[in-house]
User: Fold this.
Amino acid sequence: MPTATPDATHTDTPARPASLLDRAHLPFAVGAVALVTLGAFENRATMTVLPTVARDLDGLWLFGAASAAPLVSFVVATVVAGAWADHRGPVRPLQAGMLVFTASQVAMALAPGMAVFAVGRFGSGIAEALMDVSLTVLLARTMPEELRAKVFAAFAAAWVLPSLVGPPIAGLLTEVLSWRTVFGVGVALLPFAWVLLRPAMRAEGVERAEDAEGGEGVTTQPTSEAGTAWTPREHRAVRAAALAAAGLAALTAGGSLLGRSGPVEALGLALVLVGTACTVPAVRTVLPAGTLRFARGIPALVALRGLVAAAFGTAGSLLPLMLTTIHGLGPAAAGASLTVTGLSWAAGSQLHGLDVVQRRVPAVRRLAVGFSLITVGVLGPALTSLDALPVVIGLALWGVAGLGMGIVSPTLSTQLLLFAPVRDQGRITAASSLTASVAQAIGLAAAGALIAWQAPDLPGWLFATTMTACAAVGAVGLAAARRAA
Assistant:
């Protein structure tokens, strides 16, 4: 009997494109978006009530320190989280981040003074670093490249609901009950995110166990060549990050003391000098070689992450304080700026995630457009602080900046994952997050020094000067965007 050859009887059918709704990808996507949503609510709620907290605890002069505290702790925690995820997988640091998040929320809710509140904010930065790096590494190891931009777009979309309801809820709780009740919301919602993430974390743990036992089959979880032992380079990175964090803490604390009377001002100046001496060499050790000179590829991408954080993050942190101080808005009304931020950021990220944009618009051009929008948009609040523009128009321009941020942020993230070797994804992701944290912390330290100098009566020129400087940083990012390819 004649037999047919395989070529004559079998026709290959095109593989169905991967989708976020596939059973292999849906659990992680849902759980990760849930956790991002929780983090977004905590961020929006905290920024909404922070001016009220500072005044209620008689700590306006520590506003800059409380704003920068999570960024300072983020510096060390990102490096630790990156190495931890590379060697042990992303599940354990993710779980640790959730536990630290709970502790920090409780500390802020019960804070008797602004200093204790700042400590709670410090813990919040540790939690954010552990969760951010872990989620990014888990994404890189479980999602095919063609879905990564869509996941980052989903992360941005996860900010929409918290941006809409977070500030009003936080403002209402503050005005009707107390700002302390705001920090109980995050603790109450965390178990839901934990439950949703359990399938993805369990699958990751099983896969790592199979790899360790030499199981067969295709896996998405690479085994680190270094095993579970940290390398000398990673130990140096952690020490350098700790030194950088100490330097940033000194800068922030010293800036808050400048402008005060007597020996306190001299102490502040000494702390600023010591902080600068610690931060600069430490940061150079942690960053990829060539970052400070915008070397093409990964170094330029990491540097651009720092610039966009300094420009957009610093301005956004000051917006609610400017609206409550200069224009007399209450917490709920001032929180509208955070709503604008979340909605416009999500819109920009959704635009970035469109297939037609991914195919036809190169990454360098996307970065140039995004930085242009940020540079122009930040000038809106700057003019509003001088009463040169109505609040509504100023916030509309701020929405333009948010649109630019929504384009720049996922572009940088996807390009980093594209360029980074698989075994170094945790380290490179941590370096990128660290750069953003350091840059924004320096910006907030400078702004905090101006606030402490002028407190308790803050003039409009203070906010205008700071936000104009942020726009200038955005212009530098625009000029350097071509180095990202």
